[in-house]
Amino acid sequence: MDAAKSFQSPESLFVVHSESARMATETVKVLGCWPSPYVIRARIALNIKSVEYEYQEEDLLGGNKSDLLLKSNPVYKKVPVLLHADRPICESLVIVQYVDEVWASGPAILPSDPYDRAIARFWAIYMDDKWYPRVKEGFFSEGEASKIAFEEADKGLLLLEEAFTKCSKGQKFFGGERIGYLDIALGSHLAWIRVIEKASNVSLIDEAKTPNLYKWAHDFSADVAVKDVLPSTDKLYEFAKLLISVMKGSTPEK
Ligand SMILES: N[C@@H](CCC(=O)N[C@@H](CS)C(=O)NCC(=O)O)C(=O)O
């Protein structure tokens, strides 16, 4: 390698460091919707880093997205959006990684080892692309379609139980002794999982079938960075009834 090219003067290092320090103090705003597991991810990441932020609730059910949301996420028009120094960052997992990098001096969210980081990203994509869609399908469909979807979701949980054993290396969380990237990716769904278990009379994260995930779910929900942003089962259950009635165009059952 050309030594002259790789050399960074002490002055330029100072400029780089002071720029990232300045960014860490810029204003932070989250556009969200409280029942959204994806919004919960962004909020947990900010809580882990003790970042203060303004929160703006979007009325998604009423179909009233703010101009700021439409302008900030013109591609998907979805929450969450993180506005940092008025610049938008979209997609929950991208936001979690961004928060980890900008507030790097706080507790690490992604694993430090590149291989562990790659594995964590792999399972997070699996959860979003494969596993959670089956859970949702089980909930929103009926009869045989619902049964098959829940069976697939169950198989996915067995894979995630195995992934937990490997990633946690005998510790409390996927990320070790503290909540990390995969904890946030899966844990953000816990409130909906409990509601779906109650409404559909199924057992997903089950003490007998997935004992490690069962214990993990308890520890995760009780964590200080999580407990105030994860909605209660009762509150979310009421919302789920409303959501279904809006989807069916009817009045919610009491
Ligand atoms: N892949 C996105 C999913 C975000 C998402 O689906 N957000 C939903 C709320 S849970 C939303 O904004 N829906 C509004 C819409 O679809 O118009 C992420 O991880 O951020």
Describe the model:
- The chain is an alpha+beta fold.
- It folds into two domains: 3-102, 3-Layer(aba) Sandwich (Glutaredoxin); 114-248, Glutathione S-transferase Yfyf (Class Pi), Chain A, domain 2 (Up-down Bundle).
- The chain is built from eleven helices and four strands, in the order ααβαβαββααααααα.
- It has helices at residues 3-6, 10-24, 37-48, 67-72, 92-102, 114-140, 143-168, 181-187, 190-200, 211-222, 233-248, and strands at 28-32, 54-57, 81-84, 87-90.
- Strands 2-1-3-4 form a four-stranded mixed beta sheet, with helices on one face.
- Helix 6 runs antiparallel to helix 7 (143-168) and helix 9 (190-200) packs across helix 11 (233-248).
- The mean pLDDT is 93.
- Residues 33, 36, 38, 60, 77-80, 91-93 line the site of glutathione (GSH).
- One of its GO terms (molecular function) is glutathione transferase activity.
- It catalyses: RX + glutathione = an S-substituted glutathione + a halide anion + H(+).
- InterPro entries: Glutathione-S-Trfase_C-like, Glutathione-S-Trfase_C_sf, Glutathione_S-Trfase, Glutathione_S-Trfase_N, GST_C, GST_C_Tau, Omega/Tau-like, Thioredoxin-like_sf.
- Keywords: Detoxification, Transferase.
